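Quick start: what a row looks like.
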Amino acid sequence: MVRPILEREYGARAALATGWQPAYDPRPGALQTGLRPPTRSRHSMMTYTRLAFATALVALSVITTDAAAQETGPFDLLVTGARVLDGTGNPWFRADIGVRDGRIVAIGLLGGAAAERVIDATGRYVSPGFIDIHSHADDGNARIGGATIRTDEVNRKAAPNVVSQGVTTVVVNHDGRSPWPIRDQRSLLERQGVGPNVMLMVGHGTVRREVMGDDHQRPATDAEVDQMRALVRQALGEGAIGMSAGLEYVPGRWSTTDEVARMAEELVPFDGVYISHERSEGADPMWFWPSQDDPGPPTLQDAIMETIEIGRHSGARVVASHIKAKGAHFWGSSGSAIQLIQRARDEGVRVWADQYPYATSGSDGNTVLIPRWATSSDQDDLSPTEALRLNLSDSDTETMIRRDIAHEIRRRGGADRVVIFEYPREEWVGKNLQAVADERGVHPVQMAIDLQLEGDPDRRGGGRLRGFSMSEMDVEAYAAQPWVATASDGGIAVPEDGSVHPRYYGTFPRKIRQYALTAGALSVESAIRSQTSLPARIMGLQDRGEIRIGNWADLVVFDLETIADEATFFEPHQHASGIDHVIVNGEFVVDDGEILYSLPGHVIPSSLNGSPGISDGEGL
């Protein structure tokens, strides 16, 4: 048959060129690049067969011609026999890849070329390195030498849990937080060296504090906004590639849409991007407690519309970050969020989103169902348990506490979705709140109170719980959108750090394994695109995110049969499987599955400071 020859030798793309059509393969985990022959009459089959063989010869001649016209070696690195997923979302094609001086200089049939290092990638896939546009690998409020790459400790600045996922570039300083000034952060990272490439945001919250100090629980004046705009310009001139915001956090909570939009206007001359942790990710913000706050807080839809309005007003590219639909009573609302964004895109607003492929939030997995005000007291020496017992002694206060706990249980996905991970009574570990409440014969609200009263007295909540507050239906719906990039919302982690979200180790392999191969929410090609060329386009990168001659050699070699996230909620410090090699700027950071702790990463500055260049002008 013509098609098997074409696909085997030149990839699915060559077979498609001759009229073979995509065919869905129903087998679990199948790579959806199967093809079926074109529908043709018997009289046209001879003509078609001749055309198909002619196309095969043309494909061969094109590859051979390309190989002859481009660099032929010797190379620093030669990857041979690979199934190349180039990052564009197209089907794979078979090719060799030649690398010299950190860049891709040849793609084609390069057999016999000399190279210092040759990787036989037969049976493996090669893709561009993954780009994490929402990373906490560095953070304005992280202590030096802790959860940050700004450190002398090679086991952190090499970012082992990041590069082992195939990530070669991280975008840091999110949620409105960044060091100040940006030039100092950039200088330190360039001087000390880093594992992956790094792009720096400037934090809206940081700039707001610089101008308003502690007097930030109010809208900014026009004069203050002008001062903030000047600081954003300064940061962009020092190498920041955009502005992040944390509008659900202090001090961003008190900003207005107009304030943020006016600051975002400064991004446009620098081809910068605005990435927002929005004001709400469900029916209400994380700070909202029914007993304490006025009704009518912003919803997810309100937050999405605000991000769209910031993009519309400023003209900047904007991103709704770690998009979700949080809370059992809010499941299914991804549909309306998707419609809002798609309509805005259709109208010309340059808006995207990113997501982490998990149904639970929270970096450390410490879900506390009891509000902080209920475990606090004017008596400073009281433990959380003692303070709660005191507050429960007043009947009116007890009513408010129970109301708030019920609200938080629902916001965290319901009692059957809140799981106990650490507790003095080990027989409860691994069970959900509803199950232990049923064992005791009490309401889940009472059980949450009992966990505090009978657990660790000095720990809020009495133990460590995690709420699985999102529905897989919504996670899959977002994953299927061609404008949703993959991002971890994770940082640097080593085993001695204790509990972390598995996303710190598994985000990018999980998108491929769980949501492409298993759930079928998107194709493998689309999953790769969501973490390569799509985030590169969002960030304005012109020479990363695709396997293309002239691009930086940020590459991942992986086994599609075995690639998977291994980190769990009980054992989160587990590196992903199936990733053989990770290459940053032509240098190995993972080789034959071994983390090398090398530091080849670059700090990639704004377009007016050396890179990344101007976007392609299409905008969407």
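That is the whole record. The domain at 130-361+469-609 is CATH 3.20.20.140 (TIM Barrel). Residues 1-10, 12-69, 610-620 have pLDDT under 50 and may be disordered.
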